[in-house]
Amino acid sequence: MKPVTVPFFISHQGCPHTCVFCDQRTISGASGQLPTPEMIRARIELWRSTAGIRPLEIAFFGGTFTALSMETQADLLLPLQPLLENGTLDSVRISTRPDCIDAGHVTWLSNRGVRTIELGVQSMDDRVLAASGRGHAAAASLNAIDCIKSNGVKVGAQLMPGLPGDTPASSLNSLEQVISAGADFLRIYPTVVLEGTELARRYVAGEFTPLSLDRGVQLCKLLLQYAMQAGVPVVRIGLQADYGLDEEHILAGCWHPALGQLVRSQLFADLLCRFVPPGQSVTVYCHPARLSDVVGMKRSNLLSQAGRGVQVQVVPDAALKKEEIAVNTHDASTIYSIVTDLHYSIHEV
Ligand code: SF4
After folding, report:
1. What is the atom index within ligand 1 of the atom nearest the CA of 24?
2. Is 245 exposed, middle or buried (0-12, 13-18, 19+ CB in 10 A)?
3. pLDDT at 30 over 60
4. How far apart are CA 156 and CA 116, in angstroms?
5. Of all atoms in ligand 1, which is nearest to the CA of residue 64?
6. From the alpha carbon of 21, which atom of ligand 1 is closest?
7. 138 φ, ψ to 5°?
């Protein structure tokens, strides 16, 4: 059963770096204060009362958890221990930088209920990491994934396509590398230019061209399809507006409040375009959870099919997998899958 996540943002806390794209105060909207034990307990109790029988997970997002002093890390984890013991809470998730964790630290965290560690990998291209001011090389991410996995803790990799010096090929290579290294899940956050950052200065000076929304969607589509083929879940595409990101602070880049839906819709649009002949009337069946993706935002997929003379009726069918559609024409019915039937070339992006 999917856990309910209780989020805490530890804005810029513990991070000794200033990556060119980062303004944690903007991303988290937080004051930079760490939550007190009382705040942690109160929020967990509130969420426990609404989570029903679903497992509860507390997540410390933002900042760099493992770069906080050991005393502070212990202070944040201590109030969770009785709740983990009595079953109110099931697990803890933290996020950190790849160069701020080692095997001993993972063991220490694991002994205190941490079951998932998210790594801000961003890129596996050393040139991109250097141009983005990350302060570590790709080898640090491989080491971190390895020591997290070998302690039996789940690892998530966050990737940022569109950083300075990045190309579609190097984005895909980064994704392939973290999957090969054993990442259990991915988040894809295409680069956005936030006010007040070094990237904003470069953008205004004409030294950096961010991904447009259209190109970002095309690139994310390819990355998502590759991850699906590899069987690795992509749990999020695009920064989350409701976690404090203020649109007014975004100067440029690939951002949309429902970027993930745009990307998944595009995959289904491609399936329809490639496999439904023009001028047909068809019924398209899809998993109920994918209904809005197949229809597209503001019915965009249906409208573009109408432009090809294809009349589409979309019907939910829980027997289908989430990445499949079944297309019923007058004379035949065929199931098509994003995972097996779509083939993209990096040159299309
Ligand atoms: S390591 Fe993370 S928190 Fe620190 S500056 Fe970079 S993106 Fe921001």
Report:
1. 8
2. buried
3. no
4. 7
5. 3
6. 7
7. -65, -30
What is the SS3 assignment for 185?
strand
Nearest one of 59, 78, 67, 66 to 9, comparing CA atoms: 59
Q: Which is nearest to 314 in space by CA: 281, 279, 267, 278?
A: 281
Concatenate the DSSP letters of all residues of 80-106 into one string: HHHHHHTTS--EEEEEE-GGG--HHHH
Pocket, ligand 1, Cβ cutoff 6 A: 12, 15, 17-19, 22, 24, 63-64, 97, 120
Q: How far is CA 154 from CA 95, 117, 318, 349, in A?
A: 12, 6, 29, 31
Task: Tell me the C-alpha distance between 155 and 259, whole Å.
Answer: 23
The mean pLDDT of 329-333, rounded to a whole number, is: 81
Question: Per-residue confidence at 342, pLDDT binned at 50, 70, 90?
Answer: very high
Residue, of 238 and 241, whose pLDDT is higher? 238
Residues 6+ apart with CB under 8 A from 307: none
Task: Answer for the pair 84, 106: CB distance below 8 angstroms, yes or no.
Answer: no
The per-residue pLDDT for 11 is 72
Give nearest CA residue, ligand 1 atom 3.
Answer: 63
Q: Is the pTM of this model over 0.90?
A: yes
* Confidence (pLDDT) at 73: 95
Beta strands 4-9 and 56-61, pairing class: parallel
Instruction: State the average pLDDT over residues 210-216.
Output: 97
Burial 48-57 (b: 16+ CB within 10 A, else e): beebeeeebb
Q: Is the pLDDT assigned to residue 95 strictly greater than 70?
A: yes
Structure tokens at 101: 């964790």
State the distance between the two ends of the chain, measured CA to CA, in whole angstroms: 36
Domains and CATH numbers, the chain: 4-257 (3.20.20.70), 262-348 (3.40.1260)
